[in-house]
Amino acid sequence: MDLTKYNSQIKELISLRHEPDFNTLLDKILFGESNSHKFLIKMELNRLTTPCKRVIDLRDKVLTECSPYDIENIKHYLTIEALAIFKSNLERYGEYTIGVFEAVHQYISEKKQFELNASTQVINSDTKSSIELLTLINNRKRATPRMYLVSMVNITLSDGKSLQAQTANISTTGLKIKLTHYVPLRNEELVEVMFTDLRHSFHEPVLNSAIKYKIIKQKEKESKFYLYLTLSDNNDDFNQFLKHFIRTHHYKYKFDVHYYYQLVKIDALKISYFKQLNALPIYLNCNEYSPILFALKNHVNNNILQDWFCDGVNQLEFLFNELRFTQLCVYAQTRPATTLYSFTHQVQGKIFFISATEEELQHSGLKTQFLHYGSRKESWRTYHFTLQPYQYLENNHYPQTDLFPQQFKNITHLATLLPLNDSTITYNQQIDTKDINKINCFVHRINKIKGFDIVEMFTEERRIEPRYLFSCKVFAVLEGKKHSGTLIDFSLTGLRIKLDNNIDINVNHKLTVNLFELQKIATNYSLENLKYKVVHLSPENTLHLQVNDKASSLTTKNFFSLLVENNKDKLKCLPLNEKRTPSQKRLLELSESFLNNAILFIHNEKNLPIIKYAAINHVKSPISKLLNRRNGKQSLLQELLLDNDYLYERLITKPVKENDSSNDCMVYIKAYERTASGKVSVCSSLILILHRKGYSLSNQQAINTTFMPSTIT
């Protein structure tokens, strides 16, 4: 019996234990408890009130100075705080008892635990200031590396004034110049630069005339003044000269290695983010009767596609049918994000898929009935759904062989599905069966199926073993029910079977398979009750299975390898191939549509998760204000995470520890603005995505919360 939940009652009974009607008071305080529980609590009272002779010596347990305290011929060594706890409990018990002894040690234990937690929660100012801001979208102003070159130049300003200066570095698209003294200049002002030293050294005709540059930034550093210029001259001869000069002199001058390091780091972080992305991006064309064009899939968001696969059809096509997509576009004009609910229902062997958005439920008045009925289903899913206009634009340079994908030209909208951890919904009131039947209006009834592509973001061969065609009768047992079917093909660790009837089954469901026909030729192996797991669903009741038990794996590997060895000429092996998809570079560029807000990359440093990088791609976005606004020496984000009921501890530190994640993980932040009385408040929903190498599916977890920061004017 756990007596900790009766601490408050025990404390109250301690002060009443000398009352003449103690048993009556005990029955009132413990009203509703069984006699056995009351007996155990009485025993605990007797134990706590037993006189104690043990010495409390904290000198080797705490760092704080301890002072001696004599009572009943016993000398204790206590801190000031521990002494206060000792005296208060001494007054409660009336003498030095076991309860007093345990109360002091419990206080010391709790204090140590608090200090340990505080040490993991506190992030020093050096760590806070080390958050590096990055831009993941490939539209960086400086697109080429810089070469450090000191050379004299002559600058002519727009008012005709001439300045002598010195170059600090040069690239094919820009120039950094050091001035001898401060000169008031305007950004975006055009200037003419004459490369005097280079003209004397190379005698190129193109260097005899000034080259036009535009001022983009001015900076003062250690009493020195610098101008940052970007090339604004369309002089092809000068461009060719610069390229040749940098290429032939790179061994002589120092290059900006940091630039290459940033490129590699940004690409690595971006690929890592998209590989762990658990949202499903869906690209649409509003001019088609079935708007959905294709969806981008990785190993994580593939679960969403499996959840929407029902009755041999990917049900996402119904979500974006012509009528429903028009309504979704209308809702998106005022609210681009909403909540989407879905579940499946089986009637007389036929499975129906049902889905509805928050707006659809409110408009129909069936929200209570829908949630009451659907949330009880095992197939119940909740998603954060967004819809926005989108047009693909090339920001990179591609070779001639990398043709522009035709389907990219037709994109008009982008939708995203992000799965949410939904808490159990309970209702006290009874729902009439007739009201339940009203939600049939949300059943997917697909009459015309167009189909759409599912494009793999990171293409790699998922099937690591060859498959062999083989047909025989099989029986699958799911939740005690036996289902007949036919084996289509097999590998050493997998099966593909087609069931005779529809069953309500999802990915990751476990079942047992009996291969009775093959058992006739398997004299040394038992092919009954083999443990498998569903890894994929295909049309026409076809299941892709993977062995899910060590004993079953050993049996199937031995038997099927022997079967293949003895029937090499009779078994047909399926070739390993994949459908041609757009280049990974184009798919990454297409995926940058997800980078509208901010991404925080969490790094595990000395067993403490800290924010290492923050990717902010739009300065005017509300999340940028959240990250950049300063309140004294502390950023608003850090103030909120640390001071708002220890959000940093609850959202980052604790989940990382619970998942034993020794590798890097990420926090994905979605933000929107709410305007009231001329002021803008930032509302942020944080979703923590944990990832461990090799376990990106099983260890993924999402934690959702919202908080309101201070008002930003």
Give an overview of the whole structure.
- The chain is an alpha+beta fold.
- Strand 13 and strand 14 form a beta hairpin.
- The strands form seven sheets. It has a seven-stranded mixed beta sheet. It has a six-stranded mixed beta sheet with strand order 3-28-27-31-32-33. Strands 5-6-7-10-9-8 form a six-stranded antiparallel beta barrel.
- The chain contains 22 helices and 33 strands.
Throw out a few tags for this protein:
alpha+beta; seven-stranded mixed sheet; six-stranded mixed sheet; 33 strands; 31% helix; disordered C terminus
Beta-strand level of the residues, as a percent range?
25-35%
Alpha-beta classification:
alpha+beta
Number of helices: 22
Strand order, sheet with most strands: 16-15-17-18-11-12-19
Number of strands: 33
Question: What would the average pLDDT be, to the nearest integer?
Answer: 77
Largest sheet: 7 strands, mixed
The general outline is extended
Unreliably modeled segments: 119-129, 629-634, 660-664, 674-713
Tell me the span between the first and last alpha carbons: 56 Å
Quaternary status = single chain
Radius of gyration from CA coordinates: 35 Å
Q: How much helix is in the residues? A: 25-40%
Write the layout of secondary structure elements.
Blueprint: H1 7-16, H2 22-29, H3 35-48, E1 67-71, E2 74-78, H4 80-93, H5 98-121, H6 125-129, E3 132-134, E4 147-148, E5 152-156, E6 162-170, E7 174-179, E8 190-194, H7 196-202, E9 211-221, E10 224-231, H8 236-249, H9 257-275, E11 280-284, E12 292-297, H10 302-307, E13 309-310, E14 313-314, H11 316-319, H12 322-334, E15 337-347, E16 350-357, H13 358-364, H14 367-374, E17 381-389, H15 406-409, E18 413-419, H16 433-437, E19 453-456, E20 467-478, E21 481-490, E22 494-499, E23 510-514, H17 516-519, E24 530-538, E25 542-547, H18 550-566, E26 572-574, H19 584-591, E27 598-605, E28 608-616, H20 622-628, E29 630-631, E30 634-635, H21 636-643, H22 647-658, E31 665-676, E32 679-689, E33 704-707
Parallel strand pairs: 3-28, 12-19
Antiparallel strand pairs: 1-2, 4-6, 5-6, 5-8, 6-7, 7-10, 8-9, 9-10, 11-12, 11-18, 13-14, 15-16, 15-17, 17-18, 20-21, 20-23, 20-26, 21-22, 22-25, 23-24, 24-25, 27-28, 27-31, 29-30, 31-32, 32-33
Helix pairs in contact: 4-5
